[in-house]
Amino acid sequence: MRKYVYKIIEPAKSHKDASHYFDLFIIILICLNVLAIILESEEDFRSVYADYFLRFEIFSVIIFSIEYLLRVWTCVENKKFRGAFIGRLKFISSPMALIDLLAIIPFFLPFIGVDLRFLRVLRLFRVFRILKMARYSKAFDLIKDVLKEKKEELFITAGLTAIILVIISTLMYYVEREAQPEHFSSITKALWWGIVTLTTVGYGDVFPITPIGKLMGGIITLMSIGIIALPSGIIASGYTEQIIKRKKSKDG
């Protein structure tokens, strides 16, 4: 029985498998939950359909709770989680199992005496339900493989970006601190300008006004286009490589 349940709740390998319909049901339920969270944030919807939102929340939590308990029960069928106690403990602490838990735990907090003001913040964890779809999508596996394959390049790029950010913020601090002491009174305050400029967001609330500062700002803005493009290019090339690898593996 446990092995049969395990095969059903694990991601389907074929559209003909019974688990395919289970996957489809869970994905639809997750999407409806995300839609409900969005609509519930609107006062007009929340005031009129509050009862329906609550009923749907109860239904969803029951389904997700049963799913979570079944996964804890059947996880020992997986070689990685062998062992009645140690195996299940290892599964419970795994990233996907933690996401499953975070998706349901906010609902139960009022019943164990948690401060409701604190609960308002934790209810945001319901959004984690959308991350549950990672278990059922091959696209998420592809993205995970890309990030794993390119982690060193991405780490180096992130380090280079951080170094450049500190340098330009320090330079701007020395150039603009006398002209704008309210915005560039310290390097940490200059970092805000550096971040919004380097990411090419440019909110316009902080900007250089001295001639040298404007010149530096223009150069840094042009540099930022290339800096921000680096991780995008790395991920894009990794994505292409993974698609080629999978295609060759499938053809071979």
Characterization of this structure:
- The chain is mainly alpha-helical and about 250 residues long.
- It is built from ten helices and no strands.
- The chain has helices spanning about 1-10, 20-40, 45-75, 85-90, 95-110, 115-120, 140-150, 150-175, 185-200, 210-250.
- Helix 8 runs antiparallel to helix 10 (about 210-250).
Give the topology.
Blueprint: H1 2-9, H2 18-40, H3 43-74, H4 86-92, H5 95-108, H6 116-122, H7 138-149, H8 151-176, H9 187-198, H10 211-251
Helix pairs in contact: 1-3, 2-3, 3-5, 7-10, 8-9, 8-10
In short:
With 252 residues, the protein is an all-alpha fold.
Features:
10 helices; 72% helix; extended; 0% strand; mainly alpha; 252 residues
Detail the poorly predicted runs.
116-121
Helix-strand pattern, N to C?
Answer: HHHHHHHHHH
* Portion of residues within helices: over 70%
End-to-end distance: 36 Å
* Beta-strand percentage range: under 5%
What is the radius of gyration?
Answer: 25 Å
> How much is the average pLDDT?
82
Number of continuous helical runs: 10
